[in-house]
């Protein structure tokens, strides 16, 4: 065990049992899986993905590249970082090698979403974030603070200082302690001038939570920062409770927050240095080791060497030494280490190697010794590394902020901020606690004041005011140069050391998760790559699920070194959401299963379900595809339904067809501009089939238009296109012809419609509608009548989509089930579904827009020249029908196909060629099959197809390309059944 | 996600809107009088500037009305919104 006897922010009164890689271990509340593993002496946690090398715990946060684990119990979850998994009782996990496994069963947890608005969103509850939140709230702003940790404090949680008995610190007090980022001397335990940092953070967060307009969200990671200050955060509510998580509570919630101003107080990540063996278990970021010692009371080793390029690691060395780790030496790569720090560690008997480096970490399976640049070998089990600190600029860059390379800090820092975004504290390169506190407060005040004072109660919220340009850049320190820490001591600048040169750089790891080494980068630049984006893609550095949080500056710096340019000329790769991995379950929220997409059903749906209909989706609609009887498969059922329509009468629920009422004094003229044929000449009482084109002349939709009155039409659309057609009409009315007095209203769901088709349809209808004069002469094709059907007010249209005598009976939606039952209760009518409808219409050559067309088909291609009015001056798309491309003779025409084998059903989508035997590629395609069925009326299989110059090929023999070889087919007219139209009038 | 100020409803999430491409591309008064080239220019050619761009939006899941916006395509900032038929405002 390497747990210290006392200290840390863990609850030693409770023991949590967990299992890792088959070993039963224990930890305490307050532990992460990583801290508990270190406390248990587990050094090797995972295996690297490419080389299979042992890997340990490298960091103490979401930047972890190594310790990737699979949770097995209580519910399988892949690819989590041990450093962010809060320990719970009953946790079962194992180390991974680059790949996890998804659960083999449905996730029983619920996931939810929250939409929120606020004046100021503060990302991060470290010293800068809490100060910002407090300042903004004091100005009356509505504030949300989101922080990834279970408790507030950020970096303060890893500072020394136990929890003294007694009350919380007064909220206004300034916390003590050094962030370890600066040249300021640290105040180690016992020297505190103020309350310990974590105490201050807890008190400040508690104070904030008491305010009515402030919300503090712990365990909430902001993963995406989008345009207009729209931010997406994931709140982990129950995962840390393990099996004890209450079922009623959402496991995770996705917060979608619209903030008028954002303060990014996201802190900084320590970065590694590339040297031989820098991936061995026992090599750890210095700040992480400090956090393990202070926050978790865990000693990550017994004998340590420190390798640093700045002052930060000295504080870590002192804290670890104080906790009982023997610090053998500090190799400080700078020629002149900070003298005050040097004295401080020397007081503890620690040797400082000025200008020293670590050349190699040695060991099999873990670090057992460390070789410094001067050739000395130290027997050590821990190597603390600090290559400097990178401001966490991920969110800042996601939303369009630009970064610049700061020579003082040797890191990329925020430069030009996006509108209404402030950056505060370590996230913009500040390194002392005092500065971060002051900077956060200033940012919070600026954010609140930018809203015009009084927070949400005032201000315009308009982006782009002059203040924006000031945000995040107001401090004079920003320009680099000499920095002064809070105590006035000159602040040591970062030192540029990215790698320790060696002949063999094959174990100089840059991206630990992707196993990318300096040697790999050299190969990339050696191959001529100069862009860091190209190097990223070539080497995969930065593409693992940690997205290169620890390698993000190292890679461009090493590329720059190879190219002999300054790192600022190389720049960084793009930062893209999400900042940390997000589960699909969280993104889906409640929108899964039956709630994935809205489901639309017709009024008669219950009947269809009861009769065992097999449904198909048409957009969001559920439509009966066929109604199988006992022992029938689909083919048998469809054939029977088709025969019923051709031989007697069938009924189909066609309520899903789009219906749009077009009304107003200019309605007729308006429709004339949208349909290819004349609608203005249609008389009330009559119906006309119409086709609409896009401006490019391609068929967009079709349907019937019935004229209800001089100023009133009802246009029907295809089921899937109803919304698009209404949008199309509205677009033209609003943007091009606003002077037309026309209103369009969707009435699809106000009507229930039954298609009654077949030679017996008139008889059946007459029986149901005794007052209707149904003779062909009294009620001709393409007319409509208002009457009563089965005692219900109904509008009956004489139209046909099957070639048979047919009617569409429309009643109010409420009456739909009664009408449907009345029709079927005659005992003479067979219900049929969409599949039979498709076969029947295809036998007549009626195209389905969207199945037989694909947006490249003109009315002429469909053989519908007769639909193109010669009398109208214009309609949308007309001019395109005489373009050189649309008058080509070899355009693909809709034709019928008859396989020579009358039993062969050619799959839809099959390619058609001229060759009986396929020559060597390339082979010219003549077109493809769009519809293919066994036809009841034809008594054989047939197809519709789009064929190049198809109408000139009628009678030709061409070939369908099938898996088993070519099948000969005859090109025919698309109207294969009853071409004379003799059946239409019954 | 953009926050788009509908001139009738006020600021709303982008998901409520439908994009309509470049604004001020009027349907020609007499398409039949145009050459193939002129018609093709209307059909297929659109500007693609980096910077301020006047474009059409429809508040499809709101008031269902069309309007125009001047958006900077590089920063996504919306400088102005105005109603169909109104001239493009001068923006900075
Ligand atoms: Zn609106």
UniProtKB/TrEMBL annotation, chain A:
Residues 892-978 form the Aminomethyltransferase C-terminal domain. Residues 119-400 form the FAD/NAD(P)-binding domain. SUPFAM superfamilies: Aminomethyltransferase beta-barrel domain, FAD/NAD(P)-binding domain, Folate-binding domain. It is found in: Cytoplasm. Pfam families: Fer2_4 (PF13510), GCV_T (PF01571), GCV_T_C (PF08669), Pyr_redox_2 (PF07992), SO_alpha_A3 (PF17806). Residues 448-488 are annotated as: Disordered. Residues 604-872 form the GCVT N-terminal domain. Binds 1 NAD(+) per subunit. It is an enzyme of class 1 (oxidoreductase). Keywords: Cytoplasm, NAD, Nucleotide-binding, Oxidoreductase. This is Sarcosine oxidase subunit alpha.
UniProtKB/TrEMBL annotation, chain B:
One of its GO terms (biological process) is tetrahydrofolate metabolic process. NCBIfam families: soxD. Transmembrane segments: none annotated. This is Sarcosine oxidase subunit delta. One of its GO terms (molecular function) is sarcosine oxidase activity. InterPro entries: SoxD (IPR006279), SoxD_sf (IPR038561). Pfam families: SoxD (PF04267). It comes from Planomonospora parontospora.
């Amino acid at each position: 065990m390497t747990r210290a006897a006392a200290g840390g922010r863990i609850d030693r009164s409770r023991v949590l049992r967990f299992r890792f890689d088959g070993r039963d271990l224990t930890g305490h509340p307050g532990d992460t899986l990583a801290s508990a593993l270190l406390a248990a002496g587990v050094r090797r946690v995972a295996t690297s993905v490419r080389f299979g090398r042992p890997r340990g715990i490298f960091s103490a946060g979401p930047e972890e590249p190594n310790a990737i684990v699979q949770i097995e119990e209580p519910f399988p979850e892949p690819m989590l970082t041990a450093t962010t998994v809060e320990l719970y009782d009953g946790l079962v996990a194992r180390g991974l090698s680059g790949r996890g496994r998804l659960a083999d069963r449905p996730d029983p947890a619920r996931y939810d979403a929250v939409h929120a608005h606020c004046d100021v969103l503060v990302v991060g509850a470290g010293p800068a974030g809490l100060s910002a939140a407090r300042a903004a709230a004091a100005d009356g702003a509505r504030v949300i603070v989101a922080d990834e940790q279970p408790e507030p404090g950020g970096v303060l949680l890893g500072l020394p200082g136990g929890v003294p008995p007694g009350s919380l610190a007064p909220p206004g007090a300034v916390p003590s302690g050094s962030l370890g980022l600066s040249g300021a001397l640290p105040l180690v335990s016992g020297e505190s001038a103020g309350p310990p940092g974590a105490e201050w953070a807890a008190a400040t967060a508690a104070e904030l939570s008491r305010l009515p307009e402030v919300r503090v969200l712990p365990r909430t990671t902001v993963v995406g920062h989008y345009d207009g200050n729209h931010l997406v955060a994931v709140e982990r509510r129950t995962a840390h409770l393990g099996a004890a998580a209450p079922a009623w509570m959402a496991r995770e919630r996705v917060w979608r927050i619209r903030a008028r101003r954002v303060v990014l107080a996201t802190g900084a990540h320590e970065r590694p240095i590339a040297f031989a063996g820098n991936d061995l278990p026992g090599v750890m970021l210095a700040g992480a080791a400090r956090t393990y010692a202070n926050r978790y009371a865990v000693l990550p080793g017994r004998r340590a060497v420190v390798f640093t390029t700045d002052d930060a690691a000295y504080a870590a060395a002192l804290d670890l030494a104080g906790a009982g780790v023997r610090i053998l030496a500090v190799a400080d790569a700078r020629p002149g280490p900070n003298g005050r720090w040097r004295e401080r560690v020397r007081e503890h008997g620690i040797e400082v190697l000025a200008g020293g480096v670590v050349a190699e970490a040695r060991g099999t399976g873990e670090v057992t010794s460390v070789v410094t640049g001067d050739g000395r070998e130290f027997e050590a089990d821990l190597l603390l590394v600090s290559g400097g600190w990178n401001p966490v600029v991920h969110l800042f860059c996601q939303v369009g902020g630009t970064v610049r390379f700061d020579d003082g800090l040797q890191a990329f820092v925020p430069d030009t901020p996006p509108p209404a975004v402030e950056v505060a504290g370590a996230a913009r390169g500040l390194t002392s606690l005092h500065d971060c506190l002051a900077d956060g407060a200033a940012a919070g005040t600026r954010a609140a004041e930018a809203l015009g004072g009084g927070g949400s109660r005032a201000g315009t919220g308009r982006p782009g005011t002059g203040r924006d340009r000031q945000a995040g850049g107001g401090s004079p320190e920003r320009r680099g140069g000499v920095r002064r820490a809070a105590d006035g001591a000159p602040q040591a600048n970062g030192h540029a050391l990215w790698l320790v040169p060696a002949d063999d750089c094959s174990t100089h790891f840059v991206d630990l998760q992707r196993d990318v080494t300096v040697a790999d980068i050299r190969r990339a630049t050696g191959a001529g790559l100069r862009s860091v984006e190209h190097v990223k893609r070539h080497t995969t550095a930065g593409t693992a699920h940690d997205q290169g949080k620890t390698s993000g500056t190292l890679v461009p710096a090493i590329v720059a070194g190879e190219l002999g340019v300054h790192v600022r000329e190389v720049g960084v790769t793009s930062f893209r959401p999400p900042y940390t991995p997000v589960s699909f379950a969280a993104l889906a929220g409640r929108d899964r299963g039956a709630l994935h997409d809205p489901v639309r059903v017709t009024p008669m749906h219950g009947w269809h379900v009861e009769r065992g209909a097999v449904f198909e989706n048409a957009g969001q609609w559920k439509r009966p595809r066929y109604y199988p009887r006992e022992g029938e498969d689909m083919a048998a059922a469809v054939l029977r339904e088709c025969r019923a329509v051709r031989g007697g009468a069938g009924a189909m629920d066609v309520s899903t067809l789009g219906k749009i009422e077009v009304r107003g004094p200019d309605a007729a003229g308006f429709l004339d501009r949208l349909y290819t044929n004349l609608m203005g000449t249609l008389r009330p009482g009559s119906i006309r089939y119409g086709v609409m084109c896009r401006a490019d002349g391609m068929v967009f939709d079709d349907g019937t238009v019935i004229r209800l009155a001089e100023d009133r039409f009802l246009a029907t659309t295809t089921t899937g296109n109803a919304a698009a057609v209404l949008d199309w009409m509205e677009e033209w009315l609003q943007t091009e012809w606003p002077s037309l007095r026309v209103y369009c209203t969707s009435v699809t769901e106000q009507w229930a419609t039954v298609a009654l088709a077949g030679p017996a349809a008139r008889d059946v209808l007459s029986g149901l509608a005794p007052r209707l004069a149904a003779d062909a002469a009294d009620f001709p094709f393409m007319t409509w009548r208002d009457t009563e059907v089965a005692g219900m007010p109904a509008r009956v249209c004489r139209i046909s989509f099957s070639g048979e005598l047919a009617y569409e009976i429309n009643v109010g939606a409420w009456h739909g089930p009664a009408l449907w039952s009345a029709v079927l209760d005659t005992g003479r009518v067979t219900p049929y579904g969409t599949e039979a409808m498709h076969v029947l219409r295809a036998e007549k050559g009626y195209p389905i827009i969207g199945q037989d067309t694909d947006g490249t088909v003109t009315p002429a291609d469909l053989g519908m020249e007769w639909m193109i009015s010669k009398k109208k001056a214009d309609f949308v798309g007309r001019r395109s029908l005489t373009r050189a491309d649309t008058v080509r003779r070899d355009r693909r025409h809709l034709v019928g196909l008859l396989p020579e084998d009358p039993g062969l059903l050619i799959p839809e989508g099959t390619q058609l060629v001229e060759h009986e035997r396929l020559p060597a590629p390339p082979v010219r395609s003549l077109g493809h099959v769009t519809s293919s069925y066994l036809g009841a009326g034809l008594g054989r299989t047939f197809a519709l197809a789009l064929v190049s110059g198809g109408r000139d090929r009628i009678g030709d023999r061409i070939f369908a390309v099938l898996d088993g070889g070519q099948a000969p087919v005859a090109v025919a007219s698309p109207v294969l059944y009853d071409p004379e139209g003799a059946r239409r009038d019954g | 996600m953009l926050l788009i100020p509908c001139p009738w409803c006020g600021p709303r999430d982008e998901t409520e809107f439908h994009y309509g491409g470049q604004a001020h591309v009027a349907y020609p008064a007499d398409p039949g009088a145009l050459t193939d080239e002129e018609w093709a220019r209307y059909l297929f050619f659109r500007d693609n500037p980096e910077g301020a761009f006047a474009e059409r939006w429809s508040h499809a899941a709101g008031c269902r009305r069309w309007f125009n916006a001047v958006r900077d395509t590089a920063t996504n900032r919306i400088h102005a919104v105005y109603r169909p038929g109104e001239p493009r405002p001068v923006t900075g």
